[in-house]
Amino acid sequence: MVKAKDLKVGQVVRLECGDAGNWGNFEVDKITALEDSVEVLCHHGVIHMEFSWETDKMLEVIG
């Protein structure tokens, strides 16, 4: 587990998206640190997503 503010480009995070139980492994492409949040661009295959988390949000990093 890693805090959102400590994510690094290239890491893979496991996230639940959409329906409950719909998990995906997303590779981090870009991180923008803001005052009290972190914006993260990532992809899972051809699917590209943007997420925004509070800096202390704990995320499961699997790679």
Rg, Å, rounded: 11 Å
Q: Please tell me the overall pLDDT.
A: 94
CATH top level label: Mainly Beta
**Count of individual domains:** 1
- Derived from helix and strand composition plus strand pairing, the structural class reads mainly beta
| Beta content | over 45%
Name given to the CATH architecture: Roll
Q: Mind describing the biggest β-sheet? A: 6 strands, antiparallel
Order of helices and strands: EEEEEE
* Quantity of strands, as a count: 6
Helix content: under 10%
State the distance separating the first and last CA atoms.
Answer: 11 Å
Coarse shape:
globular
The number of helical runs is 0
Q: For the largest sheet, list the strands in their spatial order.
A: 1-6-2-3-4-5
Protein name: Phosphatase
Write the layout of secondary structure elements.
Blueprint: E1 2-3, E2 12-16, E3 23-33, E4 37-44, E5 47-54, E6 58-61
Antiparallel strand pairs: 1-6, 2-3, 2-6, 3-4, 4-5
Organism: Hungatella hathewayi
Protein name: Phosphatase
Question: How would you describe the overall organization of this protein?
Answer:
It comes from Hungatella hathewayi. This is Phosphatase. By secondary structure, the protein is mainly β. It has a single domain (2-61), classed as SH3 type barrels, CATH 2.30.30. The chain is built from no helices and 6 strands. The protein has strands spanning 2-3, 12-16, 23-33, 37-44, 47-54, 58-61. A 6-stranded antiparallel sheet has the order 1-6-2-3-4-5, with no helix packed on it. A hairpin with a 3-residue loop joins β3 (23-33) and β4 (37-44). It starts with a strand and ends with a strand.
